[in-house]
Amino acid sequence: MRKREVWRVIFAAWTFAMQIAMDEAGSNGLIYKGQPTSSPSSASPRFVDSIRMQQTFIAWPARHSVRLKCKASGSSPLRFQWLKDGDPSIHRRLQPRLKTNMWYLKLKDLVPLDSGKYTCIVSNTYGSINHTYTLRVVEKSRTKPILKCGFPRNTSAELGQNASMTCIVLISGTLPDFRWLRWNTIPSTFPDSLDFENGSYTLVNPRQYQTVHVGGKYGVKVNIWNVQPNDLGLYTCYVSNHLGSDYMSAFLTEEKDRRKESEVTTEKPEEKDFANHENTGSPPLRGTNATEEIPPAKQAVTRSREAKIPLSVFIGVLSTWAVITTIALLWCHLYHKKIRAAKTGVEF
Ligand SMILES: *[C@@H]1O[C@H](CO)[C@@H](O)[C@H](O)[C@H]1NC(C)=O
Ligand SMILES: *[C@@H]1O[C@H](CO)[C@@H](O)[C@H](O)[C@H]1NC(C)=O
Ligand SMILES: *[C@@H]1O[C@H](CO)[C@@H](O)[C@H](O)[C@H]1NC(C)=O
Ligand SMILES: *[C@@H]1O[C@H](CO)[C@@H](O)[C@H](O)[C@H]1NC(C)=O
Ligand SMILES: *[C@@H]1O[C@H](CO)[C@@H](O)[C@H](O)[C@H]1NC(C)=O
Fold it and tell me: In CA terms, which of 43, 150, 198, 290 is 20 to 30 Å from 313?
């Protein structure tokens, strides 16, 4: 009879712990709220996602939500503080209770006034670090195209092999026009600004273009088959719509190291969730041609977050279960001892 009661208590406690773990996971996408629990006892703060944080310029459509993240580790307590343009009091008419002391800053329902520099400061007893994101909120269909930084990538290929480069459009109000061109001579102004009027370049044959979808974004890949010496050089991806243009460049160089042969044709952009945004609401930017939508970034982002939940939930549940079981066994043990002690009349 007693035993059954004990098990009932254990089960209730376990259910409760599991509920908490689930709620946490549900509301945050993660169980832990930013700081990994295991950190050296006297460590200054350190950003734990520095690769993602390399992307400091963020162009994001109006009326959507964005989440800027500064995940960090270090001795607790870690303190987080967000500033906008250096000012710790961030006023948003639509979000009066904006939390500026979390490891992330979630701005809902963006308006162009939200554009600016957002700095997170992470500090503890041992030090302080900071990171700044530049956010540009753009109105749908009132913007020139914006290309993703870091693409196309510098690529190398052995002569006779195939190579490809990809550029990705982050934001475009209307469907942009894509061109790839190869510079006959590298402009003296490179990489700052390129003179497309007086420069000497060759337009790459559009038959070598291929549209791609990468992480919910739209891009154009250029294929260079059977690379020859005169294919090498600086390539520029140039996109434009009626409001303006943007371009990004990269080099195609000759690959001399045979061991890297497998990398020759694999300039595939990964599904990097650019600067950790979260996109909520209706699909963003749509081309004027309804048959060729630029798909929302949502799926890719959600997918990467979903992938994290099961592991954290699993670990959370497992550890709470272990703790509860240990306590229950200990309690059981003591309880029985007490009964035995009472029976034999021995004092404890
Ligand atoms: C950010 O860090 C840099 C270098 O560590 C420091 O010079 C600067 O004052 C910091 N900015 C803020 C706002 O704390
Ligand atoms: C490509 O190489 C050039 C020159 O070597 C360099 O300036 C540029 O930053 C590189 N681009 C990327 C995206 O790595
Ligand atoms: C290069 O691409 C062409 C066309 O897709 C293909 O036929 C050829 O086998 C490729 N060559 C190499 C070396 O992969
Ligand atoms: C192009 O070059 C011509 C003559 O060399 C010069 O008059 C013209 O201003 C240049 N255009 C631009 C956009 O630099
Ligand atoms: C929209 O795209 C389709 C197929 O890509 C094409 O046939 C049509 O002409 C396009 N319409 C406009 C207005 O660009």
Answer: 43
Tokens encoding 303: 């997918």
What's the predicted TM-score (pTM) here? 0.44
Residues 6+ apart with CB under 8 A from 145: 169, 171, 172, 176, 239, 240, 241, 244, 245, 246
User: Whose CA is closest to atom 11 on ligand 5?
Assistant: 289
More confident residue, 64 or 348: 64
Structure-block tokens of residue 51: 């690769």
Backbone angles phi, psi at 107, to 5 degrees: -105, 120
State which ligand 1 atom lies nearest to the alpha carbon of 83: 13
Between the CA of 250 and the centroid of ligand 2 the distance, in Å, is 6
How much is the average pLDDT of 325-329?
73
State the Cα angle at 139 between 133 and 145, rounded to 5°.
75
Which of 55, 148, 251 to mutate to test ligand 2, by most ligand atoms within 8 A of the CB atom?
A: 251
Kindly tell me the sign of the dihedral angle through the C-alpha atoms of 330, 332, 337, 341.
positive
